[in-house]
Every structure is written in C-alpha cells, then in structure tokens.
Amino acid sequence: MTRTTGFKQFQATRKASALADLIADGNEPAATYAGVAPKAAVNSSFEFKTAQGREVLAYSLASSADYPNLFIDVLADDSYHLLAGSYERTVHREQDLESLELELYELGLHDYVNGDNKVSEPVAPGPVMSEDPEEQLKAANDAFNVDGEMVETYRSVAISTAHLTQEDEIFLEEQAHDAGCNRVTGRESGYFIKLSAHEAEDNLRHVISEEAKKILRWAVMADFHLIEFDNAASEVDGFPTFDWVIG
C-alpha cells in the first residue's frame, strides 16, 4: 500500500511542535484518553488551540436473544454517510448463515454485511442504506431487541497515516479485524481509533510506537474523542513521518 496526499480534511490552527516538545520532555498530560484533558495539563508558555475537526456518529447494534450471533458497529458523518464499520457473526451451519443474511436484508442492513463467513469483517465506506437512517436504525434496534440509546457522537480529527510506522499500521490492521477490539475500526484509506475510554490507552500504549503514542496524546489534549488516520489527510507539523510501502 502506498500513501497518497490529496485534499485537506482539516486545517490545523496551531503548530504541534510545542506540544511534541512538551511531551518529549516528560511533561505529559495528567489525564490521558479520558475524553477531555484537564486544562491545567497544558503548558502556560504557549497558547493551545485545537485543530478543526468534525462530528462522527457511532451506531452500535448489539447481539440479543433474537440475534445472538451478530454485532454491528457503524461510524457515519453528520450527513449520515457511512465512513467505516464492522460486524461480527458466528454461524455453525450454512442454513444459519443464509437465515442471518435474510434477516439483515429485511432490516435494510444487508449493505453492511459483505465478505465470507468470518468472525469479524470490515465494511467498505459508502452511502447509508436509506434516506432516513435514524428511523431505519431505530427499527433495527427494535428488531434486535436492544434497549437504550444506541447513538454516540464523537469529535474527530483526521491525521495522515504517514505518521504511523510500518509496525503501527500492521498492528492497527490486526486490531481492525479482531472481533474483541472495538476501539479500532478499519477503512480502505486508514483507521479510526476511539479515544474516549481509559482502556484505549491500556490496549495500545505497550504496542504502538512512541511517535504514534504522542499523536494520540496530542489529540486527547485537543479534546478529540476519535482520531482518523487517513491516507489523504494532512500531516501535522512537529511529528515525524515515515516512508514505507507494503508490497
């Protein structure tokens, strides 16, 4: 896979080098991966301004007694266009698979399911399934017999995948296909990483590179809850980039 550069998905309103230097000196934020970093953690020697981001909606359709073998996660923008998603399913017989796919079709969710019979499979970005996705997702929630509000809103920022090492990208690709990981979602051009819970740090801090770890901390300091590593996104000044190709 080769990286490409294109239109800017966000415009940074400050240089990130000051924060990168701050972290490199060991003055890390007092609370990381908690959704909102305390303002006191920002060094008073420079003015901290956030990058412009976008709102991303997260839908979760959980398994239930009626559908014990299915779990769907969907990320969409505020116009309800599908950005990324994943599903998990476990079937033991061919007729179970056919029955499940028929039920999904009746729910209007068949576009979210593709690929062969795997435990976890990414869903390709594209348009949502109807003109009224909120009503359709609500109906799907009812059909799945799921209680409670199923929609969350994340403040997201896009950053170039050029800031990832080869090892980082290989690891994120594995996590995106791991049925037990709901913090990393894959898409054709990169990855989404949720930053809104403490376990995100616990899951990632021992395996990602120091360079990637600093970017995640930077995003949390800027009060983002979701980071998009994307091939077409802009690079951030102050953080190193890496040039490599997966054959």
From TrEMBL:
Record keywords: Plasmid
Annotated ranges, domain DUF5983: 157-244
Entries under Pfam families matching the protein: DUF5983
Full protein name: DUF5983 domain-containing protein
Species per Swiss-Prot/TrEMBL record: Marinobacter salarius
